[in-house]
Specification:
This protein has one domain. It is built from 4 helices and 3 strands. The protein has helices at 30-51, 59-64, 75-90, 111-123; strands spanning 2-6, 12-18, 21-27. The protein has a 3-stranded antiparallel sheet, with helices on one face. The chain is elongated, with a radius of gyration of 17 Å.
Length: 125
């Protein structure tokens, strides 16, 4: 479900359901902000399609099941998994995207990192 509401002024509020959660955007300039919002929402849906352990044919699900190798994936997937590995090392294993049973029946679920990473990138659009 996607909703938008206009502010008493020039901006608007937009809520996008993506990655299993609601992402809220407060756009202060309706004219120049609309294009950025469209790009940000598109980016978040791309991330969901790529990294979701809930989507059976996502690259991350296929990688977790051994249907793909890391060499078969994009640089984006490799970079995220490298960030996950650094975070695992930095937290002495408290965060481990490779250890928790995932919704796709594998043990690969980088969504704990992906949600923050993707929102940070979306904010730059």
């Amino acid at each position: 479900m996607t909703t938008s509401r206009t502010f008493a002024g020039q901006g608007f509020h937009h809520v996008e359901q993506v990655m299993g959660t609601a992402v809220s955007f407060d756009v202060r300039d309706a004219v120049s902000g609309s294009e950025g919002l469209t790009e940000a929402v598109s980016w978040l849906h791309h991330v969901d399609r790529t990294f979701s352990p809930y989507i059976v044919d996502s690259p991350i699900s296929r990688l977790g099941r051994g249907e793909l190798t890391l060499d078969d994936t994009t640089d984006e997937v490799s970079d995220v998994l490298a960030m996950c590995e650094r975070l695992r090392a930095d937290t002495a294993g408290a965060f481990d995207a490779f250890a928790i049973p995932a919704p796709n029946g594998t043990r690969l679920d980088p969504s704990g990192l992906v949600k923050g990473w993707s929102i940070e990138r979306a904010a730059r659009t």
